[in-house]
Design goal:
The chain is built from 3 helices and 11 strands; from the N terminus they run αββββββββααβββ. The chain is α+β, with helices and mostly antiparallel strands and 170 residues long. It starts with 6 loop residues before the first helix and ends with a strand.
Length: 170
């Protein structure tokens, strides 16, 4: 057991605060699946962040969607970074507390929020909850989410319209 469900988001928040204290007005802090994008790119545009395809087959399908953001935290929880397959079943590090086994209703959940610590913990909670309950949780909490369910179906909250672009072929 570790604090991976919130620690990286918290660390990204602290790094961002430190950068701002030192006069940095824009940039990206990346902490292993946790992103804090702040300010705008030098061309005045928001940052364009890729969401990884959890079942990537080759280099051309590495990114499943892109989101344009500024001053937001983006956290992804997925079953595709730390896992093994035994007898055709995927075992990964995000456990369902009800069963003690890996949560199985999602492949990937990305949450967009103002704070990294919240986005980090919330992406894990939505992943464990599954796509239907997860969308309800996101809606009730007022956060945006991209959920890729166990069948590969991509679902998004309404707040992502206009800033999320799903890549061709997905």
């Amino acid at each position: 057991m570790d604090l991976g469900g919130i620690a990286k988001g918290y660390a990204a928040d602290l790094a961002l605060a430190n950068l701002k204290r030192n006069g940095i007005s824009s940039g990206i802090v990346a902490a292993a699946g946790e992103i804090r994008a702040f300010g705008l790119k030098p061309d005045g545009q928001p940052w364009n962040i890729g969401i990884k395809n959890p079942r990537q087959k080759n280099e051309s399908d590495e990114i499943i969607a892109r989101i344009k953001v500024s001053n937001k935290a983006i956290s992804t929880s997925g079953d595709y970074e730390r896992y093994f397959i035994e007898e055709g079943k995927r075992y990964h590090h995000i456990l369902d507390p009800k069963t003690g086994y890996p949560a199985s209703q999602c492949r990937s959940v990305t949450v967009i929020n103002d704070k990294g610590i919240f986005a980090d913990g919330f992406s894990t909670a939505v992943f464990v909850s599954g796509p239907e309950k997860g969308m309800k949780l996101a809606s009730e909490a007022g956060v945006d989410a991209v959920i890729i369910d166990s069948s590969g179906v991509l679902r998004t909250t309404p707040g992502l319209r206009g800033i999320l672009k799903i890549e061709e072929g997905h």
